Please model this.
Amino acid sequence: MSARGLVHLVDRSPQVSGADMVAALVPPPQFDDATFETYRADPEHPSQQEAKDLLIAFSRGGAPAERGGLFRRAKKAPEMKPGVYLDGGFGVGKTHLLASIYHAMPARRKYFGSFIEYTALVGALGYQKTVELFRGADLLCIDEFELDDPGDTMVMTRLIGELVPTGTKLAATSNTPPNALGEGRFAAQDFLREIHAMASSFETIRIDGTDYRQRAIDGHAVVLTDDAYAQALTDASAVGTASDDDFSGLIRHLASVHPSRYIRLIEGLDTIGLRGVAELDDQSAALRFVAFVDRAYDAQIPVRATGEGLDGVFAPEMLAGGYRKKYLRAISRLNALTHS
Model:
């Protein structure tokens, strides 16, 4: 792949093998050096420090003892469950903490991936081979544990159910408490038993706070004029690799590429260019774009765009629906990428 120049994402049709997927199960580059020490807990939200303390203990293999007074014997805290589930809004540092667990736990075999990466791996290798691959693993980190269809619910519930008895520790993040997964998205009642069985494996840790990405950003996503956009891509492609695509064309192209391959779709890019951004009114297209944004954010690739502001790309009725938290997280990330 050229180290510099202009490319079009609609011309890319990446292929990813099962081996490639497994090799990619590590924290995103921006979290290569994430540690508990570099997680800055907001003193305005004590649950952040409390979560950090619990996760440090979890990474060391046990729960912390309760602090006693000078003449009191400290009580031993109850043993933690095999999994920890970080529940909180977007932008409170959940992925940072998840990566910190991954780096801190002295495990021989450990994996870190998004929910969609694990389900895609099952699709590529088959369920039984995936179980065999992970059996004996010390740690599985699952980022953004959000269930978009009943099939994913069953796959992940079965996988967790087979791994926990063999000693695998689990760490997951989500914007939704485990007992509420699936609410507002599909007929959750039909899968309530499976969802609750999955939840019983996790110690739920609530993390409150405000979106750190918005603390340093004033206003909305940056929108460029056509001339400013052209200049930005000219400058970016002179020193690296930039993509230039019509927004509607990219949205159509995403439908032809499995979300597990989006990371390869943007591989090697230093800047993403989107012309003619417009509001999305199709739920499936919007969710694919969310997955695309997640991969771009993981890779910390700046976005330059014309048309509508990317913070207004999701129709109001979408923001009022069951995927509201996904869309709001994507908006938060898009705002940050257009300012980077």
Notes: The chain has 14 helices and nine strands.
